Each structure stands twice: as C-alpha cells, then as structure tokens.
C-alpha cells in the first residue's frame, strides 16, 4: 500500500518522507487488524500532531469509542460466541442439526463477527483519536444493506476500498466490457477470500460474494424498474445471502459447511423440546418432540427461549438502532450506561478470555 501510494502524484511527496513512513508503520492503533489506513491519510496528521494541541473533544471522543468498542466485544460478541461455537462444533462432529439449531448458530455467528470486528475497529479509531489522529470508519450498519454492493460499501469499508483500488481496478475494472467486469469481480472476491486464510472455505466464501455481486450487477442492468424489490424484501434477501455465505467462513471444514447448510434448509427436520410442545401442543403439528436440542449446549428447558431472546436483542440493536458513528451523544451515553456493569463483570469474572476473531486472519 505504501509503494502504491508513493506512485501517485498527489501522495508522492507525502509518503516518501522516511520519518513519516516509520511513524505510519509503527503507529500501534492499526497494526493488528485494521482499519486498513492509507499512508497518505495519516502521515500528514502525524506530521501536524506535534504542532497541534490535543483537544478535549478528541480525548472524550476517543475514550467513548474505546469503551463502546469494549462493550461490543465483551458484552455482545462474547455473549453470542457460545451459541455459534456449539452449533458449528456439533456440525463438525457429524451431528445432524435441526432447523432451529442451525439457524440459532448462524444468526449468533453473524452477530458475533459483526460486534467483534466492529468493536475492534471502534477501539482502534478511539485509540488513534486520543493522539489527535482520525481513522476512517470501517463499518456502517452493514446488515441494513439493500444489496450485496451496498453491503460491501458498509462492511469492513477499508478492506472493500483496498480490494477495489489494488485488485479490481488494476485487473481492468469495468473498462473492458461486461464479461471482463464479471471476471474481475470474481477474481477480486476470490483473492479477498484468500486474504482471510489459505483454505477452501475462505475461497468458497469469497466466491459466493463474487457470484452475488455478479448477479447484483446483472439485475441492476436488466431488471425493469417495476420489477425492483420493495425495500424490506431487498434488505431481507441481502441479509439471507450474507448469512448463507457466513457458513463456510465459520465452519471448521467443508463437511461441517454442508452439514450446517442441510440444517438451514430443513433437510434434517424441525424439532422442539418436549417441554415447550407440552406448553403449546399445536407446535407438535409442525415439529417433532425431542428431550433437548443438543446443539444448544445443555439440557435446560429454557435454553431455546434464552437463545431466542438474546438473538432478538442483538438483531434489534443491529437493525433498528443507529451505529456508533451515527449515534447522538445521548444514545452513546445510554449505551455506555446500559453496558457498564456487564463490562465490569466480563472483565473480572469471565472464565475464559475470548480473543478478537480477526486476530486469526
């Protein structure tokens, strides 16, 4: 990225200063997992920092972003991790997940990966702000996206920009006809998948998103205006496509991916705990009664209601509330107040520290 920036006329003078380069490379706030910050974006800020007094607003904003990022990680992401881990571990061990077990696992993982990585990005943005450095935002409510193209404008925004400018455009972009554009889209997303790890499952994840983007472009070009999907259906279809693509991304193996997909489409049947069917007998007409749903982790009757309540809360936050960058000071204060006690509990009493997911990639 540094060499590419140095080639552009606008950035040549900025990024060829060795001291600026060293400060940029060594700036700890973005070293591990992003946001992917271009040298020309922060070297001038680092150069101005000694001459610019740190503002109280920078300190307040930085600390707020750090605390909200910790809340996302410790209170939200780590709460959904057990639900996702149990389901995918069961699939990896050959268990035939039923419809509800599979959907609980994938819905939990989608929330886990979002709150985990966006929380990390908030912490990185906040740390930089403590030094008067402004990082670009990395998430913009991606699960509210109206299309796959819109999703990639909102999810890991700095990676999307990197893939566009350093892979898609050099490959030719859309300059050589539609067929070449679709090939470039697929190659870009396949390489984006390999960015996360040298495994077939990441290649499949990237390939699915490449296919989604191609279909999105064809639909936008060919579909008449009257056939365009209403907003709720477009958002729902986009989210469904993203959820199915998360399966190979998270599953430990291709066999586990197939097992999870079979459960998601109902090929392994629909089951509910016997105790719940006893409370609502009409449920027995559509679901078979089982003592427990083993992929939910234990034999308690309330495992399923608790999981559904937790997922409902998470998806309400994601789909109905403003994100951290959009939220007003009142919303941010309410979020900090609501999560403060739970953050303290997680910091001091959690049994196992959960690392950030993107540290693996």
Explain the overall architecture:
This is Probable alginate O-acetylase AlgI. It comes from Acidisoma cellulosilyticum. One of its GO terms (molecular function) is acyltransferase activity. Keywords: Acyltransferase, Alginate biosynthesis, Cell membrane, Membrane, Transferase, Transmembrane, Transmembrane helix. One of its GO terms (biological process) is alginic acid biosynthetic process. By secondary structure, this protein is mostly helical. It has 2 domains: 177 residues, no CATH class; 101 residues, no CATH class. The protein is built from 15 helices and 2 strands. The protein has a two-stranded parallel sheet with strand order 1-2. Helix 13 links the parallel strand 1 and strand 2. It is globular.
Please outline the helices and strands.
Blueprint: H1 2-7, H2 12-15, H3 18-26, H4 39-48, H5 56-92, H6 99-130, H7 148-154, H8 157-168, H9 178-195, H10 200-222, H11 231-250, H12 254-264, E1 271-273, H13 274-279, E2 288-290, H14 303-320, H15 329-349
Parallel strand pairs: 1-2
Helix pairs in contact: 3-4, 5-6, 5-12, 5-14, 5-15, 6-11, 6-12, 6-14, 8-9, 9-10, 10-11, 11-12
Radius of gyration: 23 Å
Please, how many helices?
15
- Level of helix content? 55-70%
Overall geometry comes to: globular
Main β-sheet, spatial strand arrangement: 1-2
Organism: Acidisoma cellulosilyticum
Subcellular location: Cell membrane
Pfam families: MBOAT (PF03062)
Transmembrane segments: 18-37, 95-115, 182-203, 233-251, 263-287, 307-325, 337-359
């Amino acid at each position: 990225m540094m060499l590419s920036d140095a080639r552009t006329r606008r950035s040549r003078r900025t990024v060829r200063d060795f001291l600026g380069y060293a400060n940029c490379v060594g700036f700890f706030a973005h070293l591990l997992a992003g946001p992917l910050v271009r040298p020309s974006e922060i070297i001038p800020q680092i150069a101005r920092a000694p001459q610019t007094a740190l503002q109280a607003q920078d300190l307040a904003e930085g600390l707020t972003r750090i605390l909200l990022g910790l809340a996302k990680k410790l209170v939200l992401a780590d709460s959904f991790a057990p639900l996702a881990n149990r389901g995918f571990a069961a699939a990896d061990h050959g268990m035939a997940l039923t419809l509800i077990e599979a959907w609980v696992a994938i819905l939990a993982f989608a929330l886990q990966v979002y709150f985990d990585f966006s929380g990390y990005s908030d912490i990185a943005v906040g740390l930089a702000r403590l030094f008067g450095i402004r990082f670009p935002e990395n998430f913009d409510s991606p699960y509210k996206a109206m299309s796959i193209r819109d999703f990639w404008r909102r999810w890991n925004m700095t990676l999307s920009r990197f893939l566009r400018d350093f892979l898609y455009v050099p490959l030719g972009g859309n300059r050589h006809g539609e067929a070449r554009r679709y090939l470039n889209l697929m190659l870009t997303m396949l390489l984006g998948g390999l960015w996360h790890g040298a495994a077939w499952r990441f290649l499949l994840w990237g390939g699915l998103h490449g296919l989604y983007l191609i279909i999105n472009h064809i639909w936008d070009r060919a579909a008449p205006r009257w056939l365009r999907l209403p907003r709720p259906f477009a958002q729902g279809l986009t989210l469904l496509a993203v959820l199915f693509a998360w399966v190979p991304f998270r599953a430990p193996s291709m066999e586990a991916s197939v097992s999870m997909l079979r459960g998601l489409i109902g090929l392994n049947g629909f089951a509910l705990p016997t105790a719940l069917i006893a409370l609502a007998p009409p449920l027995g007409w559509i679901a078979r009664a089982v003592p427990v749903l083993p992929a939910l982790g234990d034999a308690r009757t309330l495992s399923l209601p608790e999981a559904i309540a937790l997922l409902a809360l998470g998806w309400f936050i994601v789909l109905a509330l403003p994100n951290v960058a959009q939220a007003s000071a009142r919303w941010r204060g309410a979020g900090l107040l609501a999560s403060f006690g739970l953050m303290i509990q997680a910091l001091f009493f959690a049994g196992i520290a959960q690392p950030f997911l993107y540290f693996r990639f």
